Amino acid sequence: MTLPVALSGTDVIGQAKTGTGKTLGFGLPLLERVTVPADVEAGRARPDQLTDAPQALVVVPTRELCTQVTNDLLTAGKVRNVRVLAIYGGRAYEPQVEALKKGVDVIVGTPGRLLDLAGQRKLDLSHVRALVLDEADEMLDLGFLPDVEKIINMLPAKRQTMLFSATMPGAVIGLARRYMSQPTHISATSPDDAGATVANTTQRVYRAHSMDKPEMVARILQANGRGLAMIFCRTKRTAADIADQLAQRGFASGAVHGDLGQGAREQALRAFRNGKVDVLVCTDVAARGIDVEGVTHVINYQSPEDEKTYLHRIGRTGRAGASGTAVTLVDWDDIPRWQLINKALDLGFPDPPETYSTSPHLFEELDIPAGTKGVLPRAERTRAGLGAEELEDLGETGGRGSRGKRPDRSGRPERTEERPERTRTPRQRRRLRAGAPVDGTPETSATTAPAETPVTAEAAVAEVPAEVTAPRAPRRRRRTRAGAGAGIPAEATVSEAAATVAEAPAATPVAEPESAPEAAEAKPRRRTRKAAEPAETVTEAPAAEAPAEAPEATEAKPRRRTRKAAEPAETVTEAPAAEAPAEAPEATETKPRRRTRKAAQPAEAPAEAPETAEAKPRRRTRKAAEPAETVTEAPAAEAKPRRRRAVKAAAAQPES
Higher-confidence residue: 314 or 483? Predict the structure, then answer.
């Protein structure tokens, strides 16, 4: 009915049931209107009519339908050598651009990629003579309508426009007339097939529970006489999950949905056509136009959205005069939606019977052998499976999916490229404390040594042995006020400063003077405050036990210079110079000099520090209201001239 009208160049709106041959209904007129070199040789066309630009354009909604229409037109135009090219997303641009440069007669494509290439000026649509919108109701829906309008505006105003679909609502026809010129509406039906669905398709509708559906599907797939089967789901996640469950039950299944890369989608559909996979789980992307020979069962795992989707789904079986079975599983929540579909199509299933995987009427109506379980017996697992079909590398352009082998449970393909081997050892992270590592490395000792000892760097080099700089345990934190090595609190009073100088300790006992630096690093320094302690407790340590070791001990401790406020000058000259140690000047040259002020303390008080400090840990005491005279009661008064004289001798040495 369509061929005479379409060959005459008139605009056509063609409507017919699924599986009745609409592709050749518009394909043959397109191939006849295209001018090819064979027409010039036969004298049917002039040489100036030949062009490498496309002369006909077919716009389809899905990629799978694009490849199918392309293959059908290549088969039909093989004799005339018509060049047909499929342009759709998910593939690399370069092969499609190269084919356009070589010359194309008919283009079959999806709206997105057509607009991309036209926007890049790689696709010239100014010579198109005929436009076809396959599945026109889908193309003129709200999702595709803006893109379709842009494509139509790129075409010449004088052209032939044809619309074909199995469902053509009145609103779509009214919208299509804006782009057409006096179209002829052709609706093809058979006299004995007055309904909307194909009479050769047996329809079964059951109310099923969602948790029992996988078991029901597994038993339906073992019905007698079952060939290829297609299972339709509403969501991509459900389709991926059902395909995985069926594979675990022993069925050769594949999946086609939007989350897969184009290579994986074509691999599954190609394996389904070749018979390596006999169960194809898909979303509605495969519901329109897919023509696979030998499909005997279509299972609606989830209720379709509307009556149009239902017609296109069950139209995958019972095509071209063959018979088929359509099974719809309706959940309790989908009963209202199903009742609307049933009323629109007048199917006669307003209230589906409640059915489970063990229901007798399920086995009887679908011819399922008794005793069938939800796992396919190993003897019947004869299909090669999806892995036997080669996965083609399409040079995908970074869509939802990536190049991969087999989709995992979530539906995403696994990556094929392997991670390169590690070429270096991983970097070891080190813990830091105050900017310095604390894991016992040599850097730790180098960075923390100045903060650990109160002497300067020159004194550390002169006094500390080499083994002390070896790795040691992490340092302890201690509180300091106004300097770590001064040993005097910043807020101490004048009398407290004098008492602190008198009790300044070394870190080792008198018996082992040679190990003084090591002991000073290993012992914690503690500070204690005493409120009202008598001064006698500070000076109780006997200082006269080891007068000979005093010079060595003074080398390992800092020298402090004290300034006295009201001290007579003759107190400095009272110290005898004969008792000074020989090595005192060298030690004092490399040690810091600190000055403290004392308010009204006699000069005899600080003289006991060099000897008394060697036998006690370093402590600081604060006395609240202590008279200055109590400090002079210390029994170590005979050692005070030694410290004062050593300081004076060190000052006089450089002058001489």
Answer: 314
